[in-house]
Design brief:
This protein is 47% helix and 12% strand. By secondary structure, it is α+β, with helices and mostly antiparallel strands. Helix 4 packs across helix 5. The longest helix has 14 residues.
């Protein structure tokens, strides 16, 4: 089955890859396929630049790639697509000020991810990757 969404993440970030691995276990490749932001050739096909990637993870609708979410919006959209995820996402949105706080926290973690969580020696490429040969596409 072809994935419905592409998750673009930092394959060199320990936190990012841990979250992708968790999502892999929860989803089992049913809805999501993964592209590390280091797969520059693949990302070019979607018009995504390295500068775009520095603004946070990106979620693309695989059937309509012009539909995309980034940063905390991507995390919330992913959450809403998981079983019972809507309950948590709707609760999050219902709490006054949570969206604003969540975005600020996301930005702080995004901008300090290597300092806070470390940097991998080798880019992580998912079993459910959407970039062909990950070793060829993951360039540093």
């Amino acid at each position: 089955m072809k994935a419905s969404y592409y998750v673009i993440y930092d394959g060199d970030c320990n936190l990012c890859t841990t979250l992708v691995q968790l999502l892999e276990r929860l989803d089992g490749g049913e809805q999501f396929a993964y592209i590390p932001m280091q797969a520059k050739e693949t990302l070019q096909q979607f018009g995504i630049t390295p500068q775009d990637c520095e603004l946070g993870m990106i979620l693309l609708d695989a059937n309509h790639p012009q539909n995309r979410w980034q940063g905390s919006d991507a995390a919330l959209k992913i959450g809403s697509l998981l079983p019972a995820g809507d309950l948590f996402v709707n609760t999050y949105y219902a709490l006054p000020g949570m969206k604003w706080v969540g975005e600020r926290v996301y930005e702080q973690i995004r901008d300090r991810r290597y300092e806070l969580f470390g940097k991998r020696q080798e880019t992580y490429c998912s079993t459910y990757n959407a970039c062909g040969n990950p070793k060829r596409n993951a360039q540093h």
